[in-house]
Specification:
Helix content of chain B: 40-55%
Number of helices of chain B: 19
CATH superfamily of chain A: HUPs
Radius of gyration of chain B: 21 Å
Largest sheet of chain B: 4 strands, parallel
Largest interface: A-B, 14 and 23 residues
Number of strands of chain A: 11
Distance between the termini of chain B: 57 Å
CATH topology of chain A: Rossmann fold
CATH architecture of chain A: 3-Layer(aba) Sandwich
Oligomer: heterodimer
Shape of chain A: globular
Number of domains of chain A: 1
Order of helices and strands of chain A: EEEHEHEHEHEEEEHEH
Structural class of chain A: alpha/beta
Shape of chain B: globular
């Protein structure tokens, strides 16, 4: 099966995020970037499918942040083709709607049977990119996917998670786009020496993609860190006194029946 | 009966020329390694059997075994081997490397540590920009050489736990006060500090070890200093033994020898007694591996009122805390397959001496033994203190609040 995986770079949250001088956006110049976690799962799921039934895995990313390292690590894990979409602005990645169109343009001639992408990214919690990409390609889409298996026929059996611990299995005809929440096993560890070897032996193909104009319809008026509220009450005294106070508080707030 | 193959297995041939100890092909199967290993009884392949299988060309079957991730890098097998075969720094990391190259996954807890080292240059996955967090509000000046490069006497590589882990940050602050009180011109690398890697070349993740070596080469060559001083015995061993193989040679000391060499200066500044019975845990790298047994005891002996007693296993026979060889991040794996944590056994030994304080000189050991005290019901009975903390207290340079 010919599989394509879309990966994104997201700000690393171990660094404190800062608001830039406009007061309307994050200062991404001071941020460091890492591979988006659910994209890492999408890659793992693609590699598992390839190992189970053969085929190839192409990995696509926009040229932003530390993307070369993420692409070489993907090659070290077993990806066959690395594609980087050129992008001029070092200070911010494309909007997800722009990225979806750019990826779609490159994916059409590549003609994979399946596209896997992380269902969300922590700088894009609405999960816009995966369904938007499916719309651009005109392919079916299933999101919040926790497992993918080959169907005996021509398609795939896809497990999707719903609220309330409900799991559903979908038969999906190909080609399709899947938004991956978690692969069937955690993303594999690949030793650094293999990543280094991949840097020497793999090529990252750079590809131009038309950057569609994008005017956000919703504008950010102001961005600020949450203001600390002084609502915490520290309970002191013996365990019994504290327990009584907690019980009284729960009752006051109508949480006891 | 396992028959050795006629052609010498290439795996052991490679090891024989790695420069670590004598050729493993000389193993005579005496079994001293397996009998010495603190977890050998629980291993599917104790060291002797590992060597036997490897000699029989059956390396691949060893790679899947949980045994592979049970070595805690204590060096007992290596130092007792009558043939001088280096198992700790040779055989084990080579097998682990081979396993990872073959795509066999190390235990998940360790994978996270590897990722943290690769991404952030520290085992805890903390921001490199917050390297100097330990020094916030400190009452002595800290010279950050990454911002103000200048020649210093001592380049202190603080280490990951002392930089970030609250319990160990207390030790870092105490050491800063001691260095300052001794009138030493010292500096740290601040945001440029990166883990040096471990004694056994990062538990077999050799590519990662080499990445750390290269990062440190770049950082260290921009600085001028007389010597490097370290708190972490594993990093000391890495710098002293493995870095020269990459052409990186600097005078380096672990803090116990650095301070013991300034014993009269220290003694002159000691103003308080510590009236307590203390036992000392020899860490494996500086202790057994580098045979440094007297300096830590001299430091403790310099504190008036302090009565030093020895555990039943001490000096070259000391029982490992279980934190080396990646053990610090393999507790769940080792308990699952070995049945116990070595630090729990060790703190019981400390308690049997009647000591109120277990003194240590390795950043791993504070949290390992404090956890062990909680697990074994010894909390409040045996206090765990770094030698630096005890010295600082005797010099009236300790933290103001109690531990």
């Amino acid at each position: 099966m010919k599989i394509a995986v879309v990966i994104r770079q997201v700000p690393d949250l171990i660094e404190p995020l800062e608001v830039d001088s406009s007061g309307k956006a994050l200062d991404l110049g001071s941020a460091t970037f890492i591979l988006n976690e659910s994209d890492d799962h999408a890659l793992e799921q693609a590699l598992l499918l390839k190992e189970a039934q053969g085929g190839s895995v192409s990995v696509l990313a926009v040229d932003f942040g530390d993307v070369d390292n993420s692409l070489y690590a993907a090659a070290a894990k077993g990806a066959d083709q690395l594609i980087k979409l050129l992008w001029d602005d070092p200070n911010r990645p494309p909007w997800p709607q722009q990225a979806a169109r750019m990826f779609a343009e490159v994916l059409r001639p590549l003609a994979p049977e399946l596209v896997l992408v992380g269902v969300q990214a922590h700088d894009e919690l609405d999960g816009v990119l995966p369904p938007e990409l499916a719309v651009c390609l005109g392919w079916p889409y299933v999101g919040v996917v926790r497992g993918v298996k080959a169907d005996d026929g021509q398609g795939l059996l896809v497990r999707k998670e719903f609220p309330g611990a409900v799991m559903a299995e979908f038969a999906v005809r190909l080609p399709a786009v899947l938004g991956i929440l978690g692969a069937e096993q955690p993303p594999r560890y690949v030793p650094v020496s293999r990543i280094r070897a991949a840097m020497k032996s793999s090529q990252i193909a750079e590809q131009e993609a038309t950057v569609p104009p994008w005017a956000a319809r919703v504008e950010v008026a102001r961005l600020s860190p949450p203001a600390p509220a002084e609502r915490a009450e520290m309970l002191t005294g013996s365990a019994e006194e504290v327990a009584q106070r907690i019980a009284a508080l729960l009752e006051e707030k109508g949480l006891l029946r | 009966m396992i028959q050795p193959t006629k052609t010498a297995p290439d795996f052991l041939e490679q090891l024989a020329t790695s420069g670590e100890g004598e050729s493993p092909l000389g193993c005579m199967q005496c079994g001293l390694c397996a009998a010495s290993c603190p977890l050998g009884h629980a291993m599917e392949y104790p060291p002797r059997r590992l060597l036997l299988r490897a000699a029989a060309g059956q390396v691949d079957r060893l790679l899947q075994s949980p045994t592979l991730w049970m070595c805690v890098g204590c060096y007992l097998c290596s130092l007792r081997c009558p043939r001088g075969i280096e198992l700790t720094d040779g055989l084990w990391p080579a097998l682990r490397d081979r396993a990872m190259q073959a795509g066999i996954q190390p235990p998940a807890e360790l994978q996270e540590t590897f990722q943290n080292l690769l991404k952030y240059g520290n085992v805890l996955g903390k921001s490199p920009r917050q390297r100097l967090q330990w020094a916030e509000g400190l009452d002595v000046p800290v010279l950050d050489l990454s911002k103000q490069p200048q020649p210093v006497e001592v380049l202190w590589i603080v280490g990951d736990y002392p930089s970030y882990y609250p319990r160990n940050q207390r030790v870092a602050r105490a050491f800063a006060r001691i260095l300052t009180a001794l009138g030493i011109r010292w500096g740290v690398l601040g945001a440029k500090e990166c883990a040096l890697g471990e004694c056994d070349r990062m538990f077999g993740e050799e590519g990662l070890f080499e990445t750390l070596v290269e990062k440190n080469r770049q950082v260290l060559q921009t600085q001028r200093f007389e010597k490097i001083v370290l708190l972490d015995p594993h990093e000391f061993r890495a710098m002293e033994h493995f870095y020269p193989r990459y052409g990186i040679r600097y005078p380096v000391e672990h803090y116990v020898t650095f301070l013991a060499n300034r014993l009269s200066d220290l003694t002159a500044r000691i103003v308080r007694s510590i009236d307590a019975t203390v036992t000392y845990h020899d860490n494996c790298c500086v202790g057994r591996r580098c045979r440094c047994f007297d300096p830590p005891r001299q430091l403790l002996g310099a504190i008036p009122g302090l009565k030093l007693v020895e555990m039943e296993r001490n000096r070259e026979d000391a029982l490992c805390c279980g934190g080396g060889g990646g053990g610090m991040w393999l507790d769940a794996h080792i308990v699952a397959h070995g049945g116990y944590r070595l630090s729990d056994e060790r703190i019981k030994m400390a308690a049997r001496t009647g000591a109120q304080i277990l003194a240590v000189s390795c950043p791993f050991e504070l949290s390992r033994f404090e956890d062990a005290a909680k697990v074994t019901g010894l909390e409040g009975k045996v206090q765990v203190r770094d030698i630096i903390e005890l010295l600082a207290e005797a010099m009236d340079l300790g933290e103001k609040e109690t531990v």
